[in-house]
Amino acid sequence: MGAKEYMMSLIVRRRLLSNKVPADHPAPLEGWIELKARKTFMKNRELREDIGRSDLGTLTRADFEKYQLFRVREQMRYAMENVPFYRDRFKALGIRPEDIRTYDDLLKIPLTEPGDLAENSMLFYGVSATKMAREFTTTGTTGHRKSIGFTASDLISKIDIISSALKGVGMSKGDSLHIMFPLVTAWDPSLLMVGACGILGYGSSVCAETDTEKQLQVMRDSHATFIIGLPSFIYRVTALMKDKDLRSMGIRKIISTSEPLSESMRALLEDAWGCKVIDVWGMTEFGLACAIECDCQNGLHTDEANMIMEIIDPETGRHLPPGEKGELVITSLNAQGTVLIRYRTRDITAFIDPPCDCGAMFNRKILKPGGRMDLQFKIGMGHKVYPLLFDEAVFVDPRVLDYQVEISKDGYRDLLTFRVEASEPSEELVSKLVDSVSKVMEVADGISEDLVSTPKVEFVEPGSMEYAVKAKKIRDLRGSFD
């Protein structure tokens, strides 16, 4: 690190609220969120009047929700002045920030569709492209190309949340994070993670190779104690290293991000490495880091300081109560670059109200997002299937390296054919996988209705399935079937 970069890291480090969270705080992420809310409370009379006191004292959930709604109004005012898409939309519909006083008032604001952002990403910029510190392009799982811009302040805010999250999973000075993301040209998460670790004083290393010896050597050379990466990539590398004593590496925790983590895959990884696997959920549109599990592993703590989340019925748009699954909708609260208000994520999840056994008292969690609406397919009498369902069923055996499934017609029945890459193909493994898939409720119901055939398993040559980021696991060959 050169002198200039070192000085910049010191400046950024001093701006991080995460460094002011007490080292013994039971829930560092919630501690950071509380500091952001208190800072806003001290600076803004409108918020103090909303809460009804000049001394905040103990921050309650009700106080915090008033902070969020205040930030929604502030973000709307910023958008009306600086963001063409919302300036035009709010003017045409007569929507005013002052109208948003309660959580249900959010329903007065129209939803923003991913297609709106893909059609003209620049209309969502709050500053000119020349003032963006970083711009990234994502197609996500939908194939729609979207450009996302972050100002320097936006990036510092993301480093702050990453710092809090890493502290929350147990990282401290002396630890080193091994980053396992395949190279992504438009948006490489490694760039942000390496930068964050450098500023925070943690060690880091990056290796995108499926070559097991290279992975192990990089981890040894960097004295890695934590791993972060795509679960499918970490799993593939782990499966290829099945003859290695991975527990001797001393990895204390694995952080899974950017893809759904099935519980069967989690169990295999935890058994192989001898440590917990913690799940993270995020979107490029919001800077990746949006929610993370604690050691309780029963829901993801959300970054409520920078976003307000809603769970809606995707058909009616109404709010759903905690525990009821629906579509996740997000509004950014502090964004300067790309501003998104009531943005549809297409992810299905549910709220889990606080407190949490980890010590968090007011921070709301979400269930681990499962099937995305845009990755769902119907079989039988309309039963919805999606990749995570099949991940649970197929990754029950460490001999499985990867798979794809094709949905075709077998007469009047739907047929699921699983093409499986396995290190040790056998008829016994075929029987095990067919039995596992057939027990998936949606498949089992289709079979009992005589509208789904018994699934098939066909092996492909090891190495013939080239690893791809967010590969399409399901191919529907039924034409216009709905």
Word description of this protein:
By secondary structure, the protein is an alpha/beta fold. It has a domain at 376-476: 2-Layer Sandwich (GMP Synthetase, Chain A, domain 3), CATH 3.30.300. Helices cover 34% and strands 20% of the residues. It is built from 14 helices and 20 strands. The chain has helices at residues 3-15, 28-43, 45-51, 61-82, 84-93, 114-119, 152-168, 189-200, 212-222, 231-240, 263-273, 387-394, 427-438, 441-448; strands at residues 134-138, 146-150, 176-180, 203-206, 226-229, 253-256, 276-281, 291-293, 300-302, 307-312, 326-332, 343-349, 351-352, 365-366, 377-379, 383-385, 400-410, 413-422, 456-460, 474-476. A nine-stranded mixed beta sheet has the order 4-3-5-6-7-8-9-14-13, with helices on both faces. A hairpin with a 2-residue loop joins β17 (400-410) and β18. α4 (61-82) packs across α5, α7 (152-168) packs across α8 and α10 packs across α11 (263-273). The radius of gyration is 23 Å and the shape is globular.
Structural class label? alpha/beta
CATH topology name of the domain at 376-476: GMP Synthetase, Chain A, domain 3
At the fourth level of CATH, the homologous superfamily of the domain at 376-476 is: ANL, C-terminal domain
Radius of gyration: 23 Å
Continuous helix count: 14
Shape: globular
Percentage of residues in DSSP E strands:
15-25%
Q: How many β-strand stretches?
A: 20
Largest sheet: 9 strands, mixed
Distance between the termini: 56 Å
The second-level CATH architecture of the domain at 376-476 is 2-Layer Sandwich
Residue ranges: pLDDT <50 for 5 or more in a row? none
The neighbouring-strand order within the major sheet is 4-3-5-6-7-8-9-14-13
As a percent range, the share of helical residues equals 25-40%
Query: Could you report the average pLDDT, rounded to the nearest whole number?
Result: 90
What is the name of the CATH class of the domain at 376-476? Alpha Beta
